[in-house]
Amino acid sequence: MTNTAEQLAGRASRTTEGLALEHVSLTLGDGDSTVTALDDVDLTVPRGELLAVVGPSGSGKSSLLAVAGALIAPTSGAVHLDGVDVLALKGGRQAALRRERIGFVFQSGNLLPALTAMDQLRFALHVAGVRGTPGRDPRDLLEQVGMGHKAGRRPHELSGGERQRVGIARALVTTPGLLLVDEPTAALDRARSHEVVELLAAETHEHGVATVMVTHDHDVLEHCDRVVEMEDGRLSA
Ligand SMILES: Nc1ncnc2c1ncn2[C@@H]1O[C@H](COP(=O)(O)OP(=O)(O)OP(=O)(O)O)[C@@H](O)[C@H]1O
């Protein structure tokens, strides 16, 4: 069968734009107590896709996020982000890629206690530095996540859902290509959980982000484009 130019272009953009893990394995611990946290994982997440990762406790979900986010080097395998071989980047350049191209959202929002919502975003832009993309306007972004009217509040003056929204805005303000999200609804009620994951889906689609969300919350999977399951460090569709 011959491939049309369109098919070839589609394939090229799938393989270069977004996250690609190839034959990734990760062994943790040492001596007699080693654990295979990731076992020959292949995963491609194109820009514009919200992927959910589910699986039992200890199956390797956090390890997957840590490797995808260049926080831990795998024992073997390759990690590409937008066509860049992440593991080939040396110290400073890998850290710069992480700051400029990858956004992280954690369970509790992980905001800095002393900063207002607006300053959380300004600080993230400052840390990412001027070499990366200019970033999004913090005020507009806070409006878009429904937090414009609380831009001057500090984390302790916000609800769990509001903190999560600010955490998402902070992760997106640097226009990352990859967004890694760990249990964003763990502290939220059902209605807030849906709102937060709907927000993640909208941002993923509108801004062409490759988003990987680890969750135990099967209720919110309907908002995701694809769901994969981890078990004993292995991935299945
Ligand atoms: N620093 C470490 N040293 C040794 N083993 C570790 C370390 N961190 C994690 N592990 C082990 O690696 C495996 C995968 O852990 P991981 O945290 O990735 O799972 P998880 O699916 O995210 O679990 P949970 O849903 O409970 O957060 C588990 O068996 C865990 O005990």
Quickly give the structural class: alpha/beta
Approximately how much helix is present in the residues? 25-40%
| Succession of helices and strands | HEEEHEEHEHHHEHEEE
Summed over residues and divided by their number, the pLDDT gives a mean of 88
- How many structurally independent domains? 1
Q: Judging by the overall fold, what is the CATH architecture? A: 3-Layer(aba) Sandwich
Beta-strand percent range: 15-25%
Any idea what the shape is? globular
pLDDT under 50 segments (min length 5)?
Answer: 1-14
Ends distance: 27 Å
Q: How large is the radius of gyration?
A: 18 Å
CATH superfamily label? P-loop containing nucleotide triphosphate hydrolases
- Just give the CATH class: Alpha Beta
**Biggest sheet descriptor:** 6 strands, mixed
Provide a count of the helices.
7
Number of strands: 10
What is the fold named in CATH at topology level?
Answer: Rossmann fold
Describe, in short, the structure shown.
The chain is an alpha/beta fold.
